[in-house]
Amino acid sequence: PRTTRASQAFLREALRGWAFGPLKDLLDALPGVPSALVRDLLRVGASSGAAYALGVLMGLAYESD
User: Fold this and answer.
1) Chain Cα centroid distance, residue 47
2) Which of 38, 39, 47, 61 has a CA between 20 and 30 Å from the CA of residue 31?
3) How many angstroms separate the Cα of 12 from the Cα of each of 8, 15, 16, 58?
4) Is the dihedral of CA 25, 26, 31, 36 positive or negative?
5) Residue-wise pLDDT tens digits, 22-54
């Protein structure tokens, strides 16, 4: 409830393993992500791309612990 409805929908989709264009491309390229894919994701929205990138990094850090 502390995010927008759009963000809630994206989070529900992520829990099902779904992702959109630049995010899906980046996730499919793991573990060796070309910098162009990172740049593409960072260009999404005003801050959404950076938030998605941070979420991926946090998820990877969590999985590695």
Assistant:
1) 12
2) 47
3) 6, 5, 7, 18
4) positive
5) 999 999 999 999 999 999 999 999 998 999 899
